[in-house]
Design brief:
It is a single chain. By secondary structure, this protein is of the alpha+beta class. The protein is built from 9 helices and 5 strands, in the order H-E-H-H-E-E-H-H-H-H-E-E-H-H. The strands form 2 sheets. It has a 3-stranded antiparallel β-sheet with strand order 3-2-4, covered by helices on one side. A two-stranded antiparallel ribbon has the order 1-5. The two termini are 22 Å apart.
């Protein structure tokens, strides 16, 4: 569960970046399969950005590890690479840079950025491609400062315009890598 991981990491000054509202019952495998995000997505990005390696079980029962240090699943990697290359223009058009979350479908935009990796496709695949049995994750330092702001607006339009403007500030443009 996410809360258990963060409780373990806290004394060491770290946490897992994505912060889903269901953290008391969100399993890490489920978060990866869903490419979960949370309220701090503009800062930390989605769960898929925090995955270094996965151990998976495929439909035929075989077990494989995928990630930068594993040269596995050649046929599947080549198929994804070909699919992404063939559809690169449509992918770029439908998932423009700066799109923080994508709800439906596979992580094609991330696969376009890293076509040799299956991680972007597996994160968010909802278990349709493989079952996740283990993961190596990136963690982030605990925030130094925390705060809450209360802002009043005369209209919904004014609030939406302010949100767009705030999202362009340097503090909100940081992304997890």
């Amino acid at each position: 569960m996410l809360d258990q991981l963060n409780l373990f990491l806290k004394p060491h000054g770290f946490r897992f970046g994505p912060d889903v509202a269901t953290s008391s019952r969100a399993t890490l495998g489920g978060m990866i399969a869903n490419d979960s995000s949370g309220s701090h997505t503009p800062v930390y990005g989605t769960t898929g950005l925090h995955v270094n390696e996965l151990e998976i079980v495929l439909a035929d029962g075989s077990v494989a590890k995928v990630g930068a240090d594993h040269d596995t699943l050649h046929r599947q990697r080549n198929a994804v690479e070909d699919l992404v290359a063939l559809n690169a223009l449509q992918i770029a058009e439908r998932f423009p840079p700066g799109l923080l979350k994508r709800w439906p479908g596979y992580g094609l935009a991330r696969a376009l950025q890293n076509p040799k990796s299956l991680l972007p496709i597996l994160a968010g695949s909802e278990g349709t491609l493989a079952a996740i049995v283990a993961a190596e994750l990136k963690i982030v330092p605990l925030p130094v400062d925390r705060g809450v702001g209360l802002i009043f607006f005369a209209s919904v339009t004014e609030a939406m315009q302010a949100t767009e403007s705030a999202a362009r500030t340097p503090a909100c443009r940081h992304r997890a890598h």
